[in-house]
Amino acid sequence: MNAQAKGLLDWASEQHRFCVRAMLRAVSATALVKHRLALGQTIRPARGSILASPAMAAYDPKPDYFFHWLRDSAIVADALRQAIEDGTLESSAIEHLVDFVDFSLKLCQLDGPTFLRQGGYPEAIEPSFREHVRSREEIGEIAGDRVLGEGRYNADGSLDVLRWGRPQNDGPALRALAVMHFFTLDAFRVRAGEPAMTLLRYDLDYTLSHWRARCCDLWEEAIGFHYHTRLVQQAALETGADFLTAEGDADRARACAAAASDLLTELDRHFDAQDGFYRGRLAETGPSAPPVRRLDIAVVLAAIHAGRRAGTHSVVDPKMLATLFALERLFDEKYSINRARPADCAPALGRYASDSYFSGGAYYFSTLGAAQFYFLLARAAAEGAEVLVTKESRAPLAELLQTPAASLTQGALVGGLRETLAEAALDRGDMYLATVRRFTPASRELSEQFSQHDGAPDSADNLTWSYASFVTALAARRRAARTMEKGRES
Ligand code: NOJ
Ligand code: NOJ
C-alpha cells in the first residue's frame, strides 16, 4: 500500500472512532433541555430517543433538528449495531438498542386525541409562529396506526405539533430492517427479543397496509411514489416474511412476501428507458402530479439501506450503476468544489439538481452513500455475485475497469474481470472517502451539508446521520477488504 493510501485509511480509522462517539451524543441525550420559545415548549429527551442533531438551533439560521426522526434514528441505530459488531463499542452498548426499541414502542402507542386531552397542545403560541403549527383537528386525526407515518416526534416522546411533510412511510420500513439486524447480536436477542418482535410487527403491519399509497419522500417535500420508500419497504417485507415464518406467523409472512414481490414490479416502473436510469419519483400525469424530478441520490441511498445482495435493485443492478454514474456526472458539473479537484478525489455529491434547501449543496450522507455503494459492490463482486454487462452498465463498467467499452461483451463479467472490478470499486469508494476527508473540518465534526462553492459546513451542525453514514461506509469497506483478502488467499 502506498503512503497516500495508508494516510487515507489512518485518517478514516480515527474519523470512524470520532463518528461513533459523536453519534452517542444524540442517543438518550437526557441531560439536554431544548426550549422552543415560540411554542412555549420545553423538551427533555427520553431514554432511547435519538436526536437528528443535538445542536441547539431555531432557524437562526440553522435548522431546529432537535427531534427523533424515524428515518434518521433507524439509520443511526443500525450504525450503532455495526459499531458493536466490529468492537468499536463494547457489548454493553446493546442497552442503547434495547432503549431504542422501548422508546419506539411508546411512539407507536401515541395518539392524537389522548395527546389533546392531556393538554399536550401548546397554549401559548407566538402569533407570528401560528402558521407553522398544526391545527387541533389535524392532531386529533392521528389515530390507529397513523402515528407511524409521522416522520418525526419530539425527543421526549410526544407528538410534533409543527407542520411538516407527512405522511412519510420509509421510516417504519427502515426501523424494521434495523431491528431485524439487531437480532444477529445474541445478547440483544436474549435481552429484548420479545419487545423487538412486537415493534417489528408494528412496522411490518404499517408497511403492509400503506405500501400502495402515495406518501411524502425522504426529503420531506413531495407526495408521490418514491423509489427510496418503495425499495426499503420491499426489503423490509421480504426479510420480514422470513422472520415471521421462523416465528410461526405464516399468514402474515405470506402477506409480506406477496407485497414484497408486487413492490419489485412497481420498482421496475421507476426505470426511465429514455434517460437510462431509475427515477427517484414515479412520473405521473394529471393536475396534482408533482413536477418531474429526474436524478435523485435517494435511489443510491435506497440500494444501501435496503441491502439487497444481488439482482435487480441491488448494487449490482446495471440500471442502478447507470443511475449512480449519471448522478456523479451531474454533481461533478454542477458544483464548483468539484472543479480542479485532486486526482484521488471523486466528486462531492448532493441530493438532486436544483435543490434549494440551505445552499442546496453537497451532503456528507450522499457522498458517503456513494462510498458505501462502491464498497458493497466490491464485496459483491469478490463474493461472485453476477455482474451483467448490459446497455446500461457497459459505459460505467468500462470506466471503472479502465477498459474500452467495446471490449466488454454483453453478459456476465467473468472471473478475472470480476476480481478487477472488486479492486476498482474499492478504489472508487476510497476516492469518495478522500473527498469527505478533504471537506471535513479539523474538528472532525460533520454538519448536514457542505457548500458547493467553498466546502464550508452548512445546514444543521453535528448531523447524527452524517456520522452514521461514515460508520456504515467504513464498516462496508472493512467487510469488502476482508472478503477480497480471503479470495486472494484461496
Ligand atoms: C425542505 C428540505 O429539502 C427538506 O429536506 C426539509 O426536511 C424540509 N424542507 C423541512 O424544512
Ligand atoms: C433533511 C433531510 O432531507 C431529511 O431526510 C432528514 O430526515 C432531515 N433533514 C433530518 O436529518
Question: What brief labels describe this structure?
Answer:
490 residues, mainly alpha, three-stranded antiparallel sheet, two-stranded antiparallel sheet, 13 strands, 50% helix, binds 1-deoxynojirimycin
Molecular structure report:
Helices cover 50% and strands 6% of the residues. The longest helix has 26 residues. The strands form 6 sheets. A 3-stranded antiparallel sheet has the order 9-12-13. A two-stranded antiparallel ribbon has the order 1-2. The two termini are 21 Å apart. It is built from 15 helices and 13 strands. By secondary structure, the protein is mostly helical. It is globular and about 70 Å long. Helix 2 runs parallel beside helix 6. The relative contact order is 0.11. Strand 7 and strand 8 form a beta hairpin. Bound molecules: 1-deoxynojirimycin (2 copies).
Quick summary:
This protein is 50% helix and 6% strand. It has 490 residues and is mainly alpha-helical. The chain is globular, with a radius of gyration of 22 Å.
For the biggest β-sheet, the strand order reads 9-12-13
**Radius of gyration, in angstroms, nearest whole number:** 22 Å
What is the count of β-strands? 13
Shape label: globular
Q: Could you report the average pLDDT, rounded to the nearest whole number? A: 97
What small ligands are held by the chains? Answer: 1-deoxynojirimycin
Q: Please report the distance between the alpha carbons of the first and last residues.
A: 21 Å
The largest pleated sheet is described as: 3 strands, antiparallel
